[in-house]
Amino acid sequence: MLHSRLVRYLDVVAREGSFHAASEMLNVATSAISRQIAAYERELGLDLFERRARGLRLTAAGEVVLAHVRDTLGRHRGMISQLDDMRGLRAGSIRIATAAGLAAALLPRLSARFCRQHPKLEIAASVMPIDDIVEAVANGQVHLGLAFDAPPDPRITGLGSVNLTLGIVARPDHPFAGRSSLHLSDCAELDLVLPDESLTLRWLIDLAFTEASLVPRLRAASNSVDFLKQMVLEGVGVSILSATDILNEIQDGRLVHVPFAGHLLKRQTLKLIAASKGTLEPLPAAFAELIKQTLASELQQFASSP
Asked: Which is higher by pLDDT, 89 or 189?
């Protein structure tokens, strides 16, 4: 690889056609430029320039070297531009792992907002089970994790969290849609479409029904939040989810979320996590700050007391 100073000398000498003109352009002594190029020619065993009375002319070997020189300079300028973008938080990538429900509503909303602020940004979002999210964050596979009820692990640290109340998800024309809150006993006679047993949320729901000595009237189950929402929209029944799962449907008036009163159905803690060791790069750190602000502000309307 050519020395960076020599690369610059070769490029300017070739463009200016003389050592003297290059000297003035670079503000470097003519002898220093000539000496470095002559030494490089001796190293190659080939002349790069024909020395003529009216200036310098590239030899065939010089043409080959100059093509490499200008490719090197172009790549270097591109690298500097990329680094400048990263320093200015304009370009780069963010990798985040999350749950299916959050990937369907909350995370796309935040990602779109961040992408509009950073046009050269690339976000890679992966949907995983909670244990895999923790592992991906801990081993550096992703920068951030956004998940409900992340188990404690010394390899990860919490950056922000909010306690969210679970509730009934129903169409606006449902008899319970206008209620400010519900009790689990209100669901005894309702047709339910629930998360399946692969999701932690289903365990919480089943435990609550058992403690209340109630048997849910199950019509459908799935590990897909989108499937559950569509079944509710089709009028098959109501579901039990977090409000974050239906943010878009709440906004456009297609679904409502009526929270449960009391503590029979345990709240969920939505937490933003990162690896305990190391420091987040500037872009992931800025995205983490946006998520933290959202947890502390916009989602407080769905929050439960500790």
From this structure: 189
Vertex 239, ends 236 and 241: CA angle to 5°?
155
Phi, psi (degrees; rounded to nearest 5) at 64 = -65, -45
> Residue 305: inside a domain, yes or no?
no
Dihedral-angle region of residue 259 (phi above 0 means left; psi in -120 to 50 means alpha; beta otherwise): beta
Q: What is the rounded distance in angstroms from the CA atom of residue 190 to the CA atom of residue 172?
A: 16
Q: In terms of DSSP H, where are the helices of 139-278?
A: 200-211, 225-233, 247-251
Judge if 239 and 209 occupy the same domain.
Answer: yes
> Is 63 inside any structural domain?
yes
Judgement on whether residues 232 and 178 belong to the same structural domain of the protein: yes
Tell me: the pLDDT tens digits for 89-132?
Answer: 666 788 999 988 888 888 999 999 988 888 778 899 999 989 99
Joined together, the tokens standing for residue 302 give: 């769905």
Which residues lie below 8 Å from residue 160, measured CB to CB, with a gap of 6+? 271, 272, 288, 291, 292, 295, 296
Structure tokens at 210: 């058992």
Rounded Cα–Cα distance for residues 147 and 130 (Å):
7
228 and 152, same domain (yes or no): no
Question: With pLDDT > 70 as the criterion, what percentage of the chain qualifies?
Answer: 93
Q: How far apart are the first and last CA of the chain?
A: 62
- How confident is residue 2, by pLDDT bands cut at 50, 70 and 90? low
250 and 278 inside one domain: no
Express each pLDDT in 208-234 by its tens digit. 999 999 999 999 999 899 999 999 999
What is the pTM assigned to this prediction? 0.66
Q: Are residues 74 and 97 in the same domain?
A: no
The number of distinct structural domains making up the chain is 3
Domain check: are 154 and 204 in the same one? no
Phi-psi region of 227 (alpha: psi -120 to 50; beta: other; left: phi over 0): alpha
Domain extent, residue 116, equals: 91-161+269-300
